[in-house]
Design goal:
Layout (H helix, E strand, L loop, with lengths): L5 E5 L3 H10 L3 E5 L14 H13 L3 E6 L8 H14 L3 E4 L2 H10 L5 E3 L8 H9 L4 E3 L6 H10 L3 E8 L11 H6 L30 E3 L4 H5 L5 E4 L6 H21 L15 E2 L8 H4 L10 E10 L2 E6 L7 E6 L5 E6 L3 E5 L4 E6 L6 E12 L6 H9 L4 E10 L2 E8 L3 E9 L3 E2 L8 H10 L7 E9 L4 E2 L2 H45 L7 E2 L4 E2 L9 H8 L7 E4 L15 E4 L8 H9 L4 E3 L6 H4 L8 E2 L1 E2 L4 E5 L8 E3 L2 E7 L4 E6 L2
Parallel strand pairs: 1-2, 1-9, 2-3, 3-4, 4-5, 5-6, 6-7, 7-9, 8-10, 18-22, 24-30, 25-26, 26-27, 27-28, 28-29
Antiparallel strand pairs: 7-8, 11-12, 11-17, 12-16, 13-14, 13-17, 15-16, 18-19, 19-20, 21-23, 31-34, 32-33, 33-34
Length: 672
């Protein structure tokens, strides 16, 4: 047998989770309504997360909760509540982007596993070592890496590594796209990306989609990738429907299972179909021409009709084909832009003057007087798994229970401990036993007591130890024993809950006090902002093959008075004494007090604040003595490993230019 990685599926909804479960996924990543990078997905309620975790664990699957957005100080109380919930629900790990969240979790939730999101842009061993030392147990690698680089990082810093194998690709480096934030006030680092890379640029005959990427299909290079022993292969797609999840998981399940048996990845006759053309991404160093599809947005699907949005969030569709519940629809405006996309769930049909019409209620309110074209992306009426998930949760046992039952001097003694809060409770019940009836076995009473106390009923107890010693040749009516058991379990449950709530309150208080302490300590006269044109900035992207060369270069930077470390992994290399000041760069994303405190503890003399987040949003952080802004720099919109064709790009009235670096290109605002 050949070892294979975990197959990790997206779950943007309970229906998508169920589709992936039935198709054979080993683990799932899903989000709550807040603090996740796919706010447009249907996502899960907290109750649904509890139920899904229970079902997954009962069926040997894992659940990873996405907390992969930047967080502000004003959101720390709500974030803390979600972390407390995740800890109690028993999620197998959280996926995070914010270094402040990482610091908070490691300080206050020591047992919780943390996976570093691809948004942390861990592209070399400097980054990986920093994250490993900070307490991360797995790193989700960026999609912009070759198979060779994946192997080199894994050799340099042994750890679990997760690799995207299939799905949509971003034009910009993971976590380094600010275009949506600048243009629409909707940050991809806050789960609100408007996919500017899919918009048409230019006008007339020059109109094209120069930043629209083909989708990733890693099957052609899977054999080579498996040789690097990744811990998990990840399928992108929390915005996709259950049909996509089912089909894609099934495809890769077949490939992995065959490899496990034979050591070879087969070539399947049936291939995956996508909304766009496929490429093998950056696995084999990709070029702009092979990874992008500038001539079209991609395969739009079947034309299903036309639509307009006269009221806020209510679409009126004139269908050309029959529409039914579960269909995935996309609305495109006359400029080729995606107006909305979703699954047809809440809708009604009515007769118009000339034809039947469909009214569809969108999840996000919007209004438009344009006529839109409707495309059918897929259709599936997935089963609703909620009843099954609720049933699983009803029988979920998470609290270890230790019991010792004795009978002495006409008293039944029950010693009980319910971890981790209730220890060595003693319950006593007057109980006079009767003589054994008929031909009762010698230890029949002990067996009867054991059986009754193993029945935990509705309580969340998992019996770990049950030690019963009862007199021989004695009898007790089962009714009395069951009443005693119910009393013991109810009092234990009440005591456990009381202690649990007290611990949660204590932990939340400690976190908020830590936040308040940082705010009081750091609020003072700020350092002056720095001039980006006169300050030395380290490269944002250093491929693993160039790390050793760059380490040698770093020793010569002592001539600079201020050095901006563009990535967190560079901080430890840049210290040359008190005469050189090291600032963490804008893409390190110091967006809250915990991130600020963490970065300054790791060697940053000051932190450059994210350029697309204003001071009002950052709150007191913007007033800290070592929190600065970088001035005199053009706005950076995309940062990519691809070599962008060198020309001017237009989006409406705005113009953009390409700035080339040794290993990457940057699209910036242009005054031309």
């Amino acid at each position: 047998m050949h070892p294979i990685p975990e197959l990790l599926a997206p779950a943007g909804s309970p229906e998508a989770f169920w589709a992936g479960y039935e198709a054979g996924a080993d683990a799932f990543y899903l989000g709550a309504p807040d603090f996740n990078a796919r706010k447009r997905a249907k996502n899960f309620t907290l109750e649904e997360i509890e139920q899904t975790v229970a079902f997954a664990h009962q069926n040997s699957r894992k659940i990873y909760l996405t907390l992969n957005t930047l967080v502000f100080d004003s959101e720390i109380p709500a974030l803390t509540d979600l972390l407390l919930f995740a800890d109690q629900a028993g999620v197998d790990a959280i996926i995070m982007q914010d270094l402040g969240v990482l610091s908070l979790v490691r300080s206050h939730f020591p047992r919780m596993r943390v996976h570093a999101s691809t948004q942390l842009f861990c592209h070399n061993s400097l980054q990986a070592r920093f994250l490993k030392d900070a307490g991360v147990s797995r790193i989700v690698l960026p999609r912009e890496m070759t198979i060779e680089e994946i192997g080199l990082i894994a050799d340099a810093v042994p750890l679990e590594y997760e690799v995207f194998i299939h799905g949509a690709l971003c034009f910009s480096f993971s976590g380094c796209c600010l275009f949506s934030s600048y243009r629409f006030g909707a940050s991809g680092n806050r789960g609100e990306c408007k996919q500017v890379c899919r918009l048409p640029f230019g006008n007339g005959p020059e109109r094209s989609y120069p930043f629209s990427m083909k989708d990733l299909n890693g099957a052609p290079v899977l054999q080579e990738l498996l040789g690097k022993r990744p811990a998990a292969l990840k399928i992108e797609g929390r915005l996709k429907n259950a049909e996509y999840v089912s089909t894609t998981v099934s495809f890769y399940r077949q490939l992995l299972d065959t490899y496990e048996r034979t050591g070879r990845v087969p070539r399947l006759r049936e291939t995956l179909k996508g909304q766009r053309a496929f490429s093998t991404g950056y696995f084999v160093r990709g070029a702009y021409e092979s990874l992008t599809a500038p001539d079209s947005l991609g395969t739009l699907g079947e034309k299903a009709g036309s639509a307009f949005i006269p009221e806020n969030g209510l679409v009126t569709i004139i269908p050309k084909i029959p529409l039914s519940k579960g269909m995935r629809l996309r609305l495109m405006d006359t400029q080729g832009r995606v107006a909305c996309e979703g699954t047809l769930l809440h809708f009604s049909t009515f007769k118009g003057k000339r034809e039947d019409k469909v009214q569809w209620r969108l999840r996000e309110a919007q209004t438009s007087d344009q006529t839109h074209t409707v495309y059918l992306l897929g259709s599936m009426q997935p089963p609703d798994p909620r009843r099954t998930l609720r049933h699983a949760f009803a029988f979920h046992r998470t609290t270890p229970l230790y019991l010792k039952v004795r009978h002495e001097n006409d008293v039944l003694l029950v010693h009980a401990s319910a971890e981790p809060y209730v220890h060595d409770c003693l319950f006593s019940f007057p109980l006079t036993l009767e003589a054994a009836r008929g031909e009762q076995k010698e230890n029949a009473l002990s067996a009867a007591v054991s059986k009754i106390f193993c029945e935990v009923d509705r309580y969340p107890f998992s019996i770990k130890v049950l030690d019963v010693v009862m007199p021989a040749e004695r009898f007790c009516p089962p009714r009395l024993l069951k009443e005693i058991r119910r009393t013991v379990f109810q009092e234990l449950f009440d005591a456990w809950n009381k202690m649990h709530e007290a611990k949660k309150k204590e932990l939340k208080t400690a976190i908020l006090e830590a936040l308040n302490e940082i705010q009081k300590r750091e609020k003072s006269e700020r350092l002056p902002d720095i001039d980006g044109k006169k300050t030395f900035q380290t490269p944002l992207f250093i491929p693993e093959t160039k790390v050793e060369d760059w380490k040698k270069t770093a020793t010569s930077l002592i001539k600079h008075k201020v050095i901006v470390a563009s990535t967190y992994g560079q901080l430890s290399l840049l210290h040359h004494g008190p005469e050189v000041k090291i600032y963490s760069g804008q893409y390190v994303y110091c967006s809250n007090s915990f991130a600020y405190d963490f970065l300054t503890s790791k060697g940053a003399n000051a932190c450059v604040l994210p350029p697309d987040i204003d001071n009002n949003t950052l709150g007191l952080l913007a007033q800290y003595k070592s929190a600065v802004r970088m001035r005199e720099l053009a706005r950076e919109l995309f940062v990519t490993r691809l070599q962008i064709p060198k020309k001017s790009y237009a989006l409406g009235k705005d113009r953009f230019a390409v700035v080339s670096n040794r290993e990457y290109d940057v699209l910036v605002e242009s005054g031309l």
